[in-house]
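Complex 156.
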Amino acid sequence: MFVCLGNICRSPLAEAVFAQQVLAQGLEKQIYVESCGTAAYHIGENPDPRTIKVAKKHSVPVNHKAQQLITQHFVSFDYLVVMDESNAQNANELRPTNASAQMLKLRDFDVLNKGADVIDPWFGNEDGFEECYQVVKRSCEEFLHFLVNKHNLGGV
Ligand code: 4NP
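Predicted structure with 4-nitrophenyl phosphate bound:
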C-alpha cells in the first residue's frame, strides 16, 4: 500500500508504476498493490491531471480513485510505503495496536539520495511531476528487488 497525503499525485503514480513492474515480472498473483492518502480531501477523485499526463507520457496505465488510509490497512497489507516523513507521522496516528504492516519510506530504496522524501509535486509545475516519476520509478524497481529477495517470489 503506497501512502501519500491526497492520493492524487505521488501514491497513485507509485501504484501504477509498481503495478506495471510487477506485471512485467509476472508477479501479479503474488503482489497486490493499492494506494491511499492520509487526508480525506480527494476521496473518490481521479488522479491529478498532471499525474495522468506524466504516466501517459511514460506509457504507464493509471486507473485509480482516491481513498483514505484506514486502520484496517495496517492489518490487511504487509507494507505501507510512505512518500515522506509527514505521511509517516499522519499514518502512525491511525496505527492500531494489532498492526502487522511494516512502514517503509519509498526513497529508502532509491539509489540516488537514499532516504529522502518524495517531494509533493502538487504545488509546483509539470517538471515536478516528471521528477516525481523518475524518483518513483527508480525506487519502485529497488523495492521490487527487495520484495522478491525477501519473500523468495517468482520461483518455479
Ligand atoms: P499527493 O499530493 O499527496 O502526492 O497526492 C497532494 C495532493 C493534494 C493536496 C496535497 C498534496 N491537497 O492539499 O489537496
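The pocket of 4-nitrophenyl phosphate is lined by residues 4-10, 37, 41, 120, 122 (CB under 6 Å).
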